[in-house]
Amino acid sequence: MEELTPGTLIAVFEEMFGPLVFWAMALTAIAITLAYLYVLIRDHSVSWRKFLLAQLSMPVGFVGAIWFVQRVTNSTMADLGGPVDWLLVLGIGLMGAIGLAILVYTLQSLIWRPRRASAAADAQA
Fold first, then answer.
1. Are 17 and 73 in contact (CB under 8 A)?
2. How confident is the model at residue 73 (pLDDT cuts 50, 70, 90)?
3. Could you count the other beta carbons within 10 Å of the beta carbon of residue 61?
4. Most buried of 7, 25, 56, 71, CB within 10 angstroms?
């Protein structure tokens, strides 16, 4: 692995997780991202109450991502060798925390529309 290209990264992740799990994760991440962008465009603003509730879910996402990677790759914390391994685990945890926060915010926004948008929709109907 002399060059770090997108193709190389895809091959490594497919080897680590298996093609089915990797592509399922990639498609899920794309779907959540598109839904999040839809919510931001639709609402024209960020709801800070929903944002706070989404941030409260971050520790669950942090632990869940690490647990998921350990289960899928059949490894444990005892397999961590050096500082790079620990940085990778922290990175996995951070990505899981941010991902779950985005998911929670998006779900809240899709389920409970902002009052301003609901009132405007009712007035048009």
1. yes
2. confident
3. 22
4. 25
